[in-house]
Amino acid sequence: PPPRRVLLLGEGNFSFSAALCGAPGMQLVATCYESEEEAAGRGGAARSIRRLRDSGAEVVFSVDCTRLKEHFPPGKREFHRIHFNFPHCGRKAGVVKNRQLLAGFFHSCSEVLAQEGEIHVALCNGQGGTPADRPRREWHNSWQIVALAAGAGFILSDVQPFKAETIDGYKCTGYRSQDKSFSVEGALNHIFTRSTAPLCSTPVSCQTQLGSQKVSFQVPQVLVDKMNRGFLEVNSNHPVRTIKEKLSAGLSQAFPLQDISSCLPLLHRGHPHGVCPSNIFWVTLSPGEAPSTQEISQGLANMVLFSHLGQDTDKDVQEGCPTPQQFYLRPSLLPHAQAIIKKKGFSPGTLQVLSGPVFRKCRITPHSLPAFHEMLVVLAVGRGTENSCVQMLVDNIKTTLNSLHQGAPGVKPSISLQEAASFGAELNDFAAFEGQLGEIQHLLCVGTEPEPSGSCVGVIRTAADELKSHEMVVVSASLNLDLLAMLLCGISDWRMLWTWDRRFLEQFPEGELRLFKSFSLYPPSYVHDVSFWLPAGEEFDEVAFHTLARRVSGEMIVSIHLRDDFQQAGTGRRSLCYRVTFQGCDRALGCRQAAEMQLRFREEIQQHLGVTLR
């Protein structure tokens, strides 16, 4: 392969460059800010420059690190690695001026760094402002290097000790090559890489099968990066597929098993009984594509309506509920299971397995997923044996999950079956929504240290009224594969499961589960408050508020907390104040981007929720 071009900036005496020259596979370009005459007068610099040139390296003088593109011709502008050791403006420049220097440097790097290149910035201990510093400075007193890099589209992917003593012949100089050197004890080398591009903001259409007809619809903006990702397909290495396949293999050893996931439609029609409309992603079919009722009924095997759908009632119309002519993305696979049970071909004693992505509007929390992969298993058993069947299902799932964690050392799952009634209102969003779909008897909880009590990742139901036979009972278990993947692989943020960054799936070769190591360290967060008056006499739809936040930010908001709920004496007007925290997960987010998102968010809630900003 051609040699990797390495750019070294701000070299004082060129001793760092000289230590690297001669390394195989490298084409060095060593630079400094001073002129050649000024640089050559520094102690030892002339000798290092001569050594570099003799080895074939390029030495360039008077290079401004904030205008790199101007110093190299078009054919020589791409570098695979850029080093900048101990940047400093000179003299007694404070943190503000040095931040400006770094900001200009990172923006300049974005024009000359190869797509998969790296930027190495060595800083004195404490300057970076990250948790890797020991001791760590207060944020306002640091150089805030991760936030500055994010503003230019870079993420911090690694931090390593800068061990000057191991670099042969290296001697650190002070700023502008002064004789007094920087203190390099405890210094850190910060390694930055390019972030993936921001999410597409243009409307996206999706085609799907609806009954016997193919239709198109505009994807809700919140879900544009979550449609047709193929995580459960045969050639996928994604952790959710690995977990699904392992669970299926384990269950097949205890029950006859049939996987019927391939024929599940993406859209439903009408209004789901018992489910709050604000939790549903409603869609509109492209003009002229809405099939007739007769066409849908003919393709009922491929199109399932929620039970109890019925016709519009006057009450529905008065309350503004969606009509049966409207469509929505499936929030659950349960209706499909109910339809399969009622078909004549349903075989009692055979475990039916359904899996696929489902979509639910929800509040913003680290474990609340607007899209996730559900695995639903359904089994008809003889009345009186349902409890032993449930226990057999749970024991089988426990055994499989315990075997899976062996591939992710350091994560030991604690799996428990708990009565749903014992949880009361303390349910996560997944379990709370499942409760809207029908009565739950048991919760399957998985915990990992240091929180062994666990999070609900599955619900188990037993229902006698699904079958006409009085001798049989249906047992079903719904599992959230995404939450399982997070717990088993140590993934702290659900957004990472949906990243487009190839470095995520590279950690799970051939479907092997491992403990995940983040490639985006210490992402900066930006806190903004928003307060507003509510429209008189109207209930506030908090889920709609959170969904707007998701859409405006492109999932760059990590939390929303209610700070104040105030009612004005005399008028009775009600005001709410929320604290919104912006933070990327796999993508860079700069301070200016977050501020722009906050402004758009304010405009959107005023326009769509009818509030009056304060």
UniProtKB/TrEMBL annotation:
GO biological process: rRNA base methylation; translation
Transmembrane segments: none
Reactions it catalyzes: tRNA(Phe) + L-phenylalanine + ATP = L-phenylalanyl-tRNA(Phe) + AMP + diphosphate + H(+)
Domain of life: Eukaryota
Keyword Transmembrane helix included in the entry's annotation: no
GO CC terms in record: mitochondrial matrix
InterPro entries xrefs: aa-tRNA-synth_II/BPL/LPL (IPR045864), BMT5-like (IPR019446), Fdx_antiC-bd (IPR005121), Fdx_antiC-bd_sf (IPR036690)
Keyword line: Aminoacyl-tRNA synthetase, ATP-binding, Ligase, Mitochondrion, Nucleotide-binding, Protein biosynthesis, Transit peptide
Domain FDX-ACB: 521-614
Molecular function terms, GO-annotated: ATP binding; phenylalanine-tRNA ligase activity; rRNA (uridine-N3-)-methyltransferase activity
UniProt enzyme class: ligase
Family classification: Belongs to the class-II aminoacyl-tRNA synthetase family.
Protein name (record): phenylalanine--tRNA ligase
